[in-house]
Write a structure and sequence with these properties.
293 residues; alpha/beta; Rossmann fold; seven-stranded mixed β-sheet; disordered N terminus
Length: 293
């Protein structure tokens, strides 16, 4: 993946969160007042236009036609991960790590994280851009967040943890969103080996794609168009998992799978009324697991 690819992908997710934020308060799943900080001028203009009633109704349908299911999956997934994270904090987690953080704003927008140490880990290109934008918009960085920058081609997570004296003896929740599908099997294995070193009772929340979408994209509505758009943007999905085999795979790393939902399921949970944009992306999944002995 190109150095700036992650940044572009992160910008699209921020764009989706911004679209949700301008919906009427009683109809939106969440509010992210920080999402627009990271958008280019074209996307900011689109957000402003989407506040107009007619365009606001039309806009999601336009996005749906270009990337079937991407918008609704991204929005519902954001809320789902927020809720899973809240569940772990209530259960006694004392530290949050966000791998490949991109333009994630959970440390800013979720009140229950304001007094929890949050560590964001990302490529220097994306991390520096994010830090600069936050300083420009907020005047200072949030005091509870640490921003670790690393190029995984040059430094492993183990080396990073050692350099920063990361405390792995406290219960931690690790969020790994929108990353595994760009990696190799070896890279995912190494990351889960790292997760295994955290205290018992820690959690991981991560996304992945059903491997069938790479083998037979016609099986999923709109998947061929999604993959074509990725190639156009010089991106490539490289890895997926069979949902039926995920529990056994995670067991190798002392992880117990607690929940594994696909886009159709978490959309039905959070936005059952938005049928017009809720088709497609069924191959995109969220897994929730806990570290046990």
């Amino acid at each position: 993946m190109k150095a700036n690819t992650a940044s572009r992908t992160a910008q699209y997710m921020a764009f989706f969160r911004a679209i949700e934020t301008v919906r009427p308060p009683r109809k939106r799943l969440f509010a992210d007042p920080y999402a627009t900080i990271f958008l280019d001028e074209g996307l900011k203009r689109a957000i402003r236009l989407s506040t107009l009633p007619f365009i606001g109704r039309l806009f999601p349908k336009i996005i749906q036609s270009k990337g079937p299911g991407a918008l609704s999956s991204g929005i519902a997934r954001t809320k789902y991960i927020d809720d899973l994270l809240y569940q772990t904090i209530r259960d006694g987690v004392k530290q949050v790590i966000i791998l490949g953080a991109g333009f994630d704003t959970r440390a800013l927008r979720l009140d229950f994280l304001h007094f929890v140490p949050v560590i964001e880990i990302d490529h220097p290109d994306t991390a520096k851009f994010k830090i600069d934008k936050l300083k420009e918009a907020l005047g200072q960085l949030p005091q509870n967040v640490s921003y670790f920058q690393t190029d995984f081609n040059k430094q492993s997570l183990e080396e990073l943890a050692s350099d920063h004296h990361l405390d792995r003896n406290i219960r931690t929740t690790i969020i790994w969103e929108g990353v595994t599908n760009y990696l190799t099997q070896q890279a995912v294995d190494k990351t889960l080996e790292f997760v295994k070193t955290f205290a018992t009772g820690s959690y991981i929340i991560f996304t992945y794609i059903d491997k069938l979408v790479l083998e037979d994209p016609q099986f999923f509505r709109g998947a061929e168009k999604v993959l074509k758009n990725l190639r156009k943007n010089e991106e490539c999905w490289t890895l997926g998992f069979n949902p039926e085999e995920l529990s056994g795979y995670l067991g190798r790393f002392h992880l117990v799978l607690l929940e594994d939902l696909g886009a159709a399921e978490y959309r039905e949970r959070y936005m059952p009324d938005r049928k017009g944009i809720s088709k497609g992306y069924e191959f995109y999944r969220v897994a929730f697991a806990t570290r046990q002995e």
